[in-house]
Amino acid sequence: MKDKKTVLLCITGGIAAYKMANVASGLAQRGFDVHVIMTEHAAEFITPLTMETLTHNRCYTKMFDGVFDQEVRHIALAKAADLILISPATANVIAKLAHGIADDMLTTTVLAAGCEKLIAPAMNTAMLHNPVTQDNIETLKRYCYTIIRPATGHLACGDSGEGKMPEPAELIDHVEQHLAFEKDLAGKKILVTAGPTQEAMDPVRYITNHSSGKMGYAIAKIAARRGADVTLVTGPVALEPLRFVHTIPVVSAADMMTVVSDAAPRMDIIIKAAAVADYRPQYAADQKMKKTDEELFISLERTTDILAYLGAHRREGQFLCGFSMETQDMLENSRKKLESKNLDMICANNVKEEGAGFAVDTNVLTLITKDTERALPCMSKEEAASEILSEILKRIG
User: What is the number of domains present in the chain?
Assistant: First the structure.
């Protein structure tokens, strides 16, 4: 983040309040300036000292605590906040906020704030589904609160059902989605392909490659953070699903081709980061593997060249970016691909170079267009993703 953003955590008196220590710590570690307000009931579950230690800022619990400040405290906090997260949000505080009741430090500050407000309801399932609570939640939506849907599972009261506070990682994701980047890609539809494909040799075995999908997932994540409407078409990977991204899983190159060719005409930007398995074995599944392994490999045929298809069928104004994985003559071979596949940009790397390749969390790329070459230093794949998107944005305006 270029500018340090201020997040105000508002914690109410639910048992899940103890999990907010992880949220506060995670946000502070990501560079946010975190401030905390707790209701007096919340302080029964977790101490203000815990929050002060994690955030290095004072934690407020009372409207009037006998400490004199030059400024009106709740107004100053409301003005400073770039985003407010109310979590866990009890039925009581939801009702108060829905009807403009400001009778403590938390509700008074939230009512005075003009920033974005996220609210994570957490309570017993029956309380959550009570029509009164549902009406109050709908009222908050009309007042432009973003509602983070509760999780489903075993509740502290012993019941099972909807009403759990989402895990800290999800709450942190929501904050980052709103604040981590300027929304300079808002209004853009971006299609990203990621991961390997698998081409079946027989009903048991398949041909694939070493792609982890990390680079494609990083691009999809950062594009969504920057406000784009992102569709991710992914082969089989061992990565956590991305929030705020429409994900379509596929297995084979033919599967990916079907999805991509259908979605491509609606996209402003297409970034093909998938490492498609280039060949498929020829076999008849109903012949119970009459061919030997050697015969299977001899009878390999090329899979569909998705990038070449996209280049040949691109619509006017569409930006097309590909990746080139090379072991020698990287720039020369990448330029040939740029031209032969009718691309606007290609991201080239030498998979033998330290810090580059499939399995690692970093990459070393050279961004190549028809008239420029820009070499990036070794950086995280998310940082590289941001550089790629910024380079594209410069060229499409």
Answer: 2
DSSP output for 24-70: HHHHHHTT-EEEEEE-TTGGGTS-HHHHHHHHSSPEE--S--S---S
157 catalytic? Reply is yes
Residues 103 and 163 grouped into a single domain:
yes
- The pair of structure tokens assigned to 356 is 């580059």
Q: From the CA atom positions of the chain, what is the Rg in Å? A: 26
DSSP class of 148: P
Q: Give the mean pLDDT of 287-301.
A: 57
Same domain, 99 and 207: no
**Is pLDDT larger for residue 265 or for residue 278?**
265
Sign (positive or negative) of CA dihedral 77, 78, 81, 86: positive
Question: 258 with 288, same domain?
Answer: yes
Per 3-state DSSP, the chain is made up of helix, strand and coil in percentages (nearest 5) of 40, 25, 40
Range 3-39 burial, b when 16+ CB lie within 10 A, else e = eebbbbbbbbbbbbbebbbebbbbbbebebbbbbbbb
CA–CA distance, 265 with 263 (Å, rounded to integer) = 6
The model's pLDDT over 102-120, given as tens digits with 9 standing for 90+, comes to 999 999 999 999 999 999 9
**62 φ, ψ to 5°?**
-125, 150
Strand partners, 279: 302
**Active-site entry in 10, 115, 144, 157:** 157
Domain that holds residue 284: 189-396
Instruction: Give me the pLDDT at residue 2, please.
Output: 43
Q: Are residues 20 and 83 in the same domain?
A: yes
Q: Write out pLDDT tens, residues 202-254.
A: 788 888 888 899 999 999 999 999 999 999 999 999 999 999 999 999 999 99
CATH number at residue 92: 3.40.50.1950
Question: Domain boundary at 124, 147, 179, which?
Answer: 179
Give the C-alpha separation, 333 to 299, whole Å: 27
Do the strands 301-302 and 319-326 form a parallel or antiparallel pair, or are they unpaired?
unpaired
DSSP structural state of residue 275: B
Model-wide pTM > 0.90 = no
